[in-house]
Amino acid sequence: MPYESIWRSHLSHDELGRLPEAHIRHPLNSASDVYLKRLSPLFGLQRLALYIARVPPGGESFLYHSHERNEEFLFILSGNGVAEIGEDSIEVGAGDFMAFPAPDGPPHHLKNPFQVDLQYMMGGESSALDIVHFPRAGRHMIFAPSGILIVDDATTKRLTLSDWVAPEVSETSHPVAAGNCLGGYSR
């Protein structure tokens, strides 16, 4: 019996060229100017986010960031750009590949200071929950099924497990305060 699917297994170069683009601008970066072609749904991919992205001359991708949960990769298809990876700025061009593991991968960002479009394939995990850190902006975004939240470092209070323990309980004698009842979580 031949394999049948409602999804595609192949798109030609011409078909890719005709796919609609969504114009995206990151809400924390006025220079963000990205056009995305979303590929995953066409192929039935549910655990992989896959896009063809285009940044016009003078534009930027999103904002210098790192991911808490979702790993990410970029493969430059055409044009040139400047990738900020950690503290380094690297000129990138067709055939260059970049990968960012989570949660310990370096913050990264892509700019196009050149005169032609920068086009690249962008992909990574597509989980229901991710936290994106914007270290230069002092903000974080939480992506969840219920929506997207922006958290500002200046107004955020960091807590530890000790903050949840009633003051009359000794931290050394109580199993929750000692981190023994919460699956090994430490303070």
Question: What does this protein look like?
Answer:
- The chain is globular and about 70 Å long.
- The chain has helices spanning 13-18, 40-43; strands spanning 22-24, 34-38, 48-55, 66-67, 72-78, 80-85, 88-93, 97-100, 108-111, 118-125, 130-134, 139-144, 147-152.
- By secondary structure, the chain is mainly β.
- The strands form three sheets. It has a six-stranded antiparallel sheet.
- The model has no long low-confidence stretch (mean pLDDT 89).
- The protein is built from two helices and 13 strands.
- It starts with 12 loop residues before the first helix and ends in a 35-residue tail after the last strand.
Structural class of the helices, strands and pairings? mainly beta
Global mean pLDDT: 89
Cα shape: globular
Report the oligomer: single chain
Total strands: 13
Strand proportion, as a percent range, falls in: 35-45%
Task: Please report the distance between the alpha carbons of the first and last residues.
Answer: 57 Å
Report the sheet with the most strands, covering strand number, pairing sense and barrel closure: 6 strands, antiparallel
Order of helices and strands: HEEHEEEEEEEEEEE
Radius of gyration: 21 Å
Q: Uncertain spans, ≥5 residues at pLDDT below 50?
A: none
